[in-house]
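Module 6 notes. Inverse folding takes a fixed backbone as the condition and produces residue identities as the prediction. Think of it as a translation problem where the source language is geometry and the target language is the twenty amino acids. Below is one complete input and output pair. Work through it position by position during the lab.
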């Protein structure tokens, strides 16, 4: 079996993995290679893939339990663990969630069992003047932790942050004119706010990461509200410093996989309604690392 070639981006995050056909059965050794590469680079591109939706789901499921998104919006028929991110309107109807992830966040920090990985398959990528649009940007949370002032690291050690799914959802409706309907009572009950430590130890590479994000983090539980809010505002600015960032530009046929412990991400909304972006996505819960939380 040929050994996959891993080519680092040379930036804070990111590598390209060549020589793996994700439509074919993946051996355990290859799963280990991908896990190690995620530990080292956090964001992986698998170029030139040709996948069915089931292939995407089966590959993703090798890494943990797949999440069924609480919003129940735009799931692949018969495969609710695959979500469709699309700005294409067909016969007057949207074909997917048009504005998923358009703001810095970490997927599933609002869940009791947090996310390990996202796996996205690029089927249509918008272009203008020959250049791809709709990039996915990342920021390294190991670099963000390392770059924190020492006294703040000490101050926050052992503290926890409250995360709420509804924060990002409402921000999209309020500030970005999203057509999303408000979450129902049942959806809010299915994902009540949860708390996680503000610093986690990355389960693959053992490094400390900052685990807070502007999309879902609400407050620091153990601090007075005003002080906690000021610190969160500082963290939100600090964690997207340019030197921590990596911008991924899509090519049709790319599979993009990233781990959510050591990164936050943002889907760049720089394309118009007639510049089509169509992507299928699986979210892998961190059951492999934190089975007790499931
Ligand atoms: C996401 O936040 O999972 C979506 C990212 C993207 O569409 O680039």
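Target side of the pair, the amino acids:
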């Amino acid at each position: 079996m040929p050994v996959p070639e891993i080519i680092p981006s040379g930036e804070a995050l990111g590598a390209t993995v060549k020589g793996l056909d994700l439509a074919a059965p993946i051996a355990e050794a290859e799963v280990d290679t991908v896990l190690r590469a995620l530990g080292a680079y956090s964001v992986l591109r698998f170029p030139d893939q040709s996948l069915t939706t089931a292939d995407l789901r089966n590959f993703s499921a090798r890494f943990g339990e797949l999440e069924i998104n609480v919003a129940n919006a735009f799931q692949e028929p018969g495969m609710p663990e695959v979500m469709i991110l699309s700005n294409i309107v067909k016969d007057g109807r949207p074909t997917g969630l048009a504005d998923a992830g358009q703001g810095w966040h970490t997927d599933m920090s609002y869940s009791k069992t947090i996310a390990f990985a996202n796996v996205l398959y690029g089927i249509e990528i918008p272009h203008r003047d020959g250049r791809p649009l709709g990039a996915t940007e990342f920021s390294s949370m190991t670099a963000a932790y390392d770059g924190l002032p020492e006294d703040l690291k000490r101050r926050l050690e052992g503290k926890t942050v409250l995360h709420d799914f509804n924060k990002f959802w409402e921000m999209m409706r309020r500030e970005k004119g999203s057509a999303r309907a408000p979450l129902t009572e049942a959806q809010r009950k299915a994902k009540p706010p949860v708390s996680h430590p503000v610093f986690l130890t990355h389960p693959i590479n053992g490094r400390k990461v900052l685990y807070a994000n502007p999309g879902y983090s609400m407050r620091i539980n153990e601090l007075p509200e005003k002080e906690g809010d000021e610190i969160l505002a500082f963290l939100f600015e600090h964690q997207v410093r340019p030197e921590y960032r990596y911008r991924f530009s899509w090519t049709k046929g790319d599979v993009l996989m990233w781990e959510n412990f050591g990164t936050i991400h943002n889907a760049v909304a720089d394309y118009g309604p007639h510049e089509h972006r169509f992507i299928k996505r699986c979210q892998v819960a961190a059951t492999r690392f934190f089975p007790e939380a499931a």
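Reference fact for the lab report: The pocket of succinic acid is lined by residues 85, 100-101, 107, 118, 136, 265, 267, 279, 281 (CB under 6 Å).
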